[in-house]
Amino acid sequence: MIGVRAWIASLALCVGALGAVQDAGAQAWPSKPVHVVVPFTPGSATDIMARTVGEKLSALLGQPFLVENRPGAGGTIGVGQVAKADPDGYTILVHSSSYTVTPTTYPNASYDTLRDLTGVAPLGLLPNVLVIAPSKGIHSVKELIAAAKARPGALNAASIGIGSATHLNAERFRLGAGIQVVNVPFKGTPEALTDVMTGRVDYYFCPVNAALPLVKDGRVTALAVGSSKRSIALPDLPTTLELGVANSDYNFWVGMFAPARTPHELIDRLYQETERALHAPEVREKLQRLGAEPMDLAPERFNAYIKEEIASNAALVKAAGIKAQ
């Protein structure tokens, strides 16, 4: 009996010592540069938000947060890099809501979204704005839908790739409006906007940060917001839901992730420091100028949200007839 008690006491001491070591490791982090992988091109909404928050984290923690752009294959190249990285807090991912689409559209990816990565924190909600060239002579969502119904399959919509947030927003709108439209994928938002402005592509559900200056200059016409609620950047612009297109909303967000085996203490530390960065006045001001809105979720709630979105997007991909890559 004494031997059993001694063994239990020894085990408890070992567990306590291990916890102390993990806590010490979390507190010591970071002791070298942190690599932030963004699976999109420079200048994208996800990239800008990663750099904005990363710059503040560098100032707070005294180590560089180095953004690395790894676009391609619907974001799966960059995600795969982080999924295989050491779970030590020195390689993290900043991705958009298309992260929850690729489990369906890229079923043969080199990683498992729920098994190999874990959510740290959302960086913000960034609404998409439905924009069109003034030369098209279309001034409302009603007119756009009428034009599409008059010529089924003749109109097209830009996206930044199959299964991207911009593509899913366009598909939600297409299904809700009951129209036939051709998807035209581009490498990034700048290329998509160029073809929309010239009229080669009819419309685009564009991240608000990229659309805003063009809307103000009159180079594109904003018809509606694609998210569930209005954008703080364009408060007078109604949503597609408000304009009567049922089930047409799609919430585009940007979030931070880490390899799944990263210790909980380190995830918590990274979450706390990220929240501190997000609440810094200068960061909040920059994100507001982008049209980004707060989306406060702790790691556990963020992971639950991700799981729900994966199921919801799987249903959307099936309904839209989007083929797996």
Task: Describe this entry's structure for a reader.
The chain is of the alpha/beta class. Helices cover 46% and strands 17% of the residues. The chain contains twelve helices and ten strands. The chain has helices spanning 2-28, 45-61, 76-83, 102-105, 113-116, 141-150, 165-177, 189-197, 208-216, 264-278, 281-290, 299-320; strands at residues 34-38, 65-69, 91-96, 117-125, 128-132, 156-159, 182-185, 203-207, 221-225, 253-259. It has a five-stranded mixed β-sheet with strand order 2-1-3-10-4, with helices on both faces. A five-stranded mixed β-sheet has the order 7-6-8-5-9. Helix 7 (165-177) links the parallel strand 6 and strand 7 (182-185). The N and C termini lie far apart (61 Å). The relative contact order is 0.18. The model has no long low-confidence stretch (mean pLDDT 91).
Count the E strands.
Answer: 10
* Strand line-up across the major sheet: 2-1-3-10-4
- The radius of gyration is 22 Å
Uncertain runs are none
Mean pLDDT: 91
Biggest β-sheet strands, sense, barrel: 5 strands, mixed
Helix/strand layout:
Elements: H1 2-28, E1 34-38, H2 45-61, E2 65-69, H3 76-83, E3 91-96, H4 102-105, H5 113-116, E4 117-125, E5 128-132, H6 141-150, E6 156-159, H7 165-177, E7 182-185, H8 189-197, E8 203-207, H9 208-216, E9 221-225, E10 253-259, H10 264-278, H11 281-290, H12 299-320
Parallel strand pairs: 1-2, 1-3, 6-7, 6-8
Antiparallel strand pairs: 3-10, 4-10, 5-8, 5-9
Helix pairs in contact: 1-10, 2-10, 2-11, 7-12
